Amino acid sequence: MRIISGKYRRRKLTQPQGDTTRPVKDRVKESLFNSLHPFAYARVLDLFAGSGALGLEALSRGAHSATFVEQDRDAYNTLTTNTKAIAEEPVNLVQEDAFAFLKTTSEGFDLILLDPPYGRKLATHALEHIVNRRLLNEDGRIVVLCGKDERIDVPDGLALVKARDVGITRISQYEWSDER
Length: 180
Fold this sequence. Notes:
By secondary structure, the chain is α/β, with parallel strands linked by helices. The chain has one domain (about 25-175): Rossmann fold, CATH 3.40.50. The chain is about 30% helix and about 25% strand. The protein contains five helices and seven strands, in the order H-E-H-E-H-E-H-E-H-E-E-E.
């Protein structure tokens, strides 16, 4: 695993041992971030962060700061190692359940990256919390990675901007809808 573009390009990332996390393939990251170009997201939330690959890619491409939320202890330790080795920008590392974090945070984010374990409806649940707590800033974007056959129930207030399948992964982007 590595950073694929931006100022940290080609920096290697450590990944957690075992099978509690799923590494994001380079072609998935490339497709995701190229579709967000030009990159102007200042405050990033990397929820279900794992190794931090998505949030670190965002920082490499110009994000101002990132909050990483990861519950698993081994993944959190890897995340800590990766952010210390790479990020010069402000980072906030949170070792907590993603939903506990969403229930208590009052921060707003410009880019929210969701890469939960596939097939457990965690993305739908996270989107509901984000909408109910209004955690996405006005011109912000939410990116969800899920299995390409997984159904996401999009809560009222969000609109699907684009979706693309890359291998086994569906990349979906959402923003506030006009009907909120």
